[in-house]
């Protein structure tokens, strides 16, 4: 049994939406390091919605990039709120200006992590949003 088998994060199922390969690998690596065993990835908001719409899909958290082709993270958040209003949603973004923050808050984002991020920042934000004691 590895050290990560019994972390507070080990039972989480996370949908990670990121179109940039490097940022995707980094986020998956951080999630694996803290013990998350189930990370499903999507490269666009459209792909994420398709995954969420599958009858067997069950996620504890969505982590999404803001800036993506086809559909922005904000538009994905809006769509998620229509069908899954209680789904915890963290936005990864390089955009931290007031307008962007207010737009996402208006649509029920649960938290932000500024890119580039340190592993501890992402871990702390997940713990805060999901009320996990670390």
Provide a descriptive summary of the structure in words.
A 5-stranded parallel β-sheet has the order 2-1-3-4-5, sandwiched between helices. The chain starts with 12 loop residues before the first strand and ends with a helix. Strand 1 (13-17), helix 1 (21-33) and strand 2 (38-42) form a beta-alpha-beta unit. The protein has a single domain (3-130), classed as 3-Layer(aba) Sandwich (Rossmann fold). The chain is built from 5 helices and 5 strands, in the order βαβαβαβαβα. It has helices at 21-33, 45-52, 73-83, 98-106, 119-130, and strands at residues 13-17, 38-42, 61-65, 89-93, 111-114. The protein is an alpha/beta fold and 134 residues long. The longest helix is centred in the N-terminal third of the chain and has 13 residues, at 21-33.
- Describe the global form: globular
| CATH homologous superfamily annotation | Response regulator
Give the name of the CATH architecture. 3-Layer(aba) Sandwich
What's the level 1 CATH class?
Answer: Alpha Beta
DSSP summary: helix tally: 5
The major beta sheet can be summarized as: 5 strands, parallel
Q: Class by helix and strand content?
A: alpha/beta
Q: List SSEs in N-to-C order.
A: EHEHEHEHEH
Q: What's the N-to-C terminus distance?
A: 20 Å
What is the fold-level CATH name, i.e. the topology? Rossmann fold
């Amino acid at each position: 049994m590895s050290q990560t088998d019994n972390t507070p994060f080990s039972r989480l199922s996370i949908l990670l939406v990121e179109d940039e390969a490097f940022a995707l690998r980094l986020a998956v690596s951080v999630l694996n390091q803290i013990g998350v065993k189930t990370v499903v990835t999507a490269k666009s908001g459209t792909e994420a919605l398709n995954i969420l719409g599958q009858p067997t899909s069950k996620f504890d958290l969505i982590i999404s990039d803001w800036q993506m082709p086809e559909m922005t993270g904000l538009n994905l958040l809006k769509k998620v709120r229509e069908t899954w209003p209680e789904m915890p949603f963290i936005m990864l973004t390089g955009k931290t200006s007031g307008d962007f923050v207010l737009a996402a808050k208006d649509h029920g984002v649960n938290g932000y992590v500024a890119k580039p991020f340190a592993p501890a920042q992402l871990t702390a934000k997940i713990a805060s949003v999901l009320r996990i004691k670390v």
